[in-house]
Each structure stands twice: as structure tokens, then as C-alpha cells.
Amino acid sequence: MGSGIAQLAIVAGFDVWLHDSDSDALRRASEGIAEAIRRLVSKNKISQLAGTDALNRLTCTLNLEDLQHADFIIEAIIESEDVKKKLFCDLDKLAKPSAILASNTSSISITRLASSTNRPSQVIGMHFMNPPPVMKLIEIVRGADTSEEVFSKTKALAERFGKIVICSEDYPGFIVNRILMPMINEAFYTLYTGVATKEDIDTGMKLGTNHPMGPLELADFIGLDICLSIMKVLHQGLGDSKYIPCPLLVQYVDAGRLGRKRGIGVYSYKRESAGVNQSKL
């Protein structure tokens, strides 16, 4: 997600520092962005000069301190409240006083993330859909103390990225995942209880409701660990038993069957990727 957001920003004309603590992940991200820009040029989406200029605006760094002069910092790390809070605490200490801190969280309370900083009015949710360069939507989430000025600047940034903005109050799952994840969870229950095969569940939703992907296929694309994490947030935050994660989803995650990124989830992708050398965003 982080590399896709970085790609959007450099194409939109911003200087970007892309940080990761893992040098291999940073290298893969840089290579993936370069390949994506080359595809845009080859398809005449942008000019060769614009592509070169965009890549020149990207700096990759292993040093978090390099973000100290940034005007706007977007966090896109693992979907864990504790890990995100630790990062926001660190960012708060090093970022300049005027900097806005945004989270790409898909379900975690912005108010709670903001509480780990001394600038809660400058913390906001900016939830990109995956993959960010392709999907047209950004979900903006205000925390309890997010200022109107910060909201306006974040909305303007999203629109400069060419995105359509929807706004959510700070409730578990926000808008998209409050609706989407229970549907995916119910698809797992449908498979778990033997109502139908995974293929028929997905085909039913694609052809019967005109969804571009079936819910189980979509879960594999998102990552089953992320789906499980969001269901736990919904269940804990809303307290309704209908948000209890399906035991089959839990079992798949426990087994390391996380979806496309691991080569196996509900479906197997190992044959599909065998022998194919592709850069990964």
C-alpha cells in the first residue's frame, strides 16, 4: 500500500520520502514503482519526461528521521493498533510542529491513534483502497479532535491525487469495511457450513450481484490476516455476535494461508505464479 501511495504522490508532483525499516521491502517498492511508471509511459498515460520527473521526486530511506521536514506523513504499516501507536508516538517527536499525521488504517480508531501524540488535532484517517493507483476512492476519517483545517487539507490532497472522497465518523470499520468485511465473513461461514463450494459462492456473487470479484477471491486479494484483524476490531468495538470471525477464517490465518501474498488462501495461486518473475508493490 505504501508504495502505491508514494506512486500517486510523485505522479501528482510531490516530493516523496518513502520509508521502510526493511531494506529488501524498500528495494522491492522502489523497483515496483519504477516498473509502474514505465507502464504508464508505455501506455501514453504520462509522457516520458513526466515519468522521469516523477521518479526523480522519489527518495527511499531506512531512516525515520528523514521525515522530519515532511508537511504530510501517511502511515501504511501493519494493521495493529499497538504498532501504529508506537509509530505515531515516534513521528510526533520528530515531525515538524505543523506536520499532519495520517493513517491508512482500514478499521482502527483514529481518536485512539491520535491519543499517542501531542497533536491530536493534526491526526486524521486517510484510507486508500487497494491498489491505490487504480482505485478511485479515499475514505477520510476524522478523529474526535481532528481540526477542520486538517480535514480540508487532507481532502484537497486526496482530490489532487484524482480521487473521490467519502467521509466517515470514527467508528469501527468506518464505511467500506463496516459493510464489506461482514459480507466476506458470511461467505466464509457459507463455505464452513457446507452450503456451497468456494467456486459457487464466488460465482453466485459475481453473476448474481454483479460484483467484479467474489467475496472469497476478494479476501485472498486483501489478505486473510487483514480480514481477520478487521473482524476482530468490529467485534470488539461494536460488541455484536454477528461480527465474530468465522472459525474457518481463523483456521486459515493460523495455518499461514493468507491469500495471494502467500501463494495460498481460500484458493491456491502457486501454479499461477510459478516461473513468473514479477516485481511486487
UniProtKB/TrEMBL annotation:
<dbReference type="Pfam" id="PF02737">
    <property type="entry name" value="3HCDH_N"/>
</dbReference>
<comment type="similarity">
    <text>In the central section; belongs to the 3-hydroxyacyl-CoA dehydrogenase family.</text>
</comment>
<feature type="domain" description="3-hydroxyacyl-CoA dehydrogenase NAD binding">
    <location>
        <begin position="1"/>
        <end position="170"/>
    </location>
</feature>
<dbReference type="Pfam" id="PF00725">
    <property type="entry name" value="3HCDH"/>
</dbReference>
<dbReference type="InterPro" id="IPR008927">
    <property type="entry name" value="6-PGluconate_DH-like_C_sf"/>
</dbReference>
<dbReference type="GO" id="GO:0006631">
    <property type="term" value="P:fatty acid metabolic process"/>
</dbReference>
<dbReference type="GO" id="GO:0004300">
    <property type="term" value="F:enoyl-CoA hydratase activity"/>
</dbReference>
<dbReference type="InterPro" id="IPR036291">
    <property type="entry name" value="NAD(P)-bd_dom_sf"/>
</dbReference>
<feature type="domain" description="3-hydroxyacyl-CoA dehydrogenase C-terminal">
    <location>
        <begin position="173"/>
        <end position="269"/>
    </location>
</feature>
<dbReference type="InterPro" id="IPR022694">
    <property type="entry name" value="3-OHacyl-CoA_DH"/>
</dbReference>
<feature type="site" description="Important for catalytic activity">
    <location>
        <position position="127"/>
    </location>
</feature>
<dbReference type="GO" id="GO:0016616">
    <property type="term" value="F:oxidoreductase activity, acting on the CH-OH group of donors, NAD or NADP as acceptor"/>
</dbReference>
<keyword id="KW-0560">Oxidoreductase</keyword>
<dbReference type="GO" id="GO:0070403">
    <property type="term" value="F:NAD+ binding"/>
</dbReference>
<comment type="pathway">
    <text>Lipid metabolism; fatty acid beta-oxidation.</text>
</comment>
<dbReference type="InterPro" id="IPR006176">
    <property type="entry name" value="3-OHacyl-CoA_DH_NAD-bd"/>
</dbReference>
<protein>
    <recommendedName>
        <fullName>3-hydroxybutyryl-CoA dehydrogenase</fullName>
    </recommendedName>
</protein>
<dbReference type="InterPro" id="IPR013328">
    <property type="entry name" value="6PGD_dom2"/>
</dbReference>
<dbReference type="InterPro" id="IPR006180">
    <property type="entry name" value="3-OHacyl-CoA_DH_CS"/>
</dbReference>
<comment type="similarity">
    <text>Belongs to the 3-hydroxyacyl-CoA dehydrogenase family.</text>
</comment>
<dbReference type="InterPro" id="IPR006108">
    <property type="entry name" value="3HC_DH_C"/>
</dbReference>
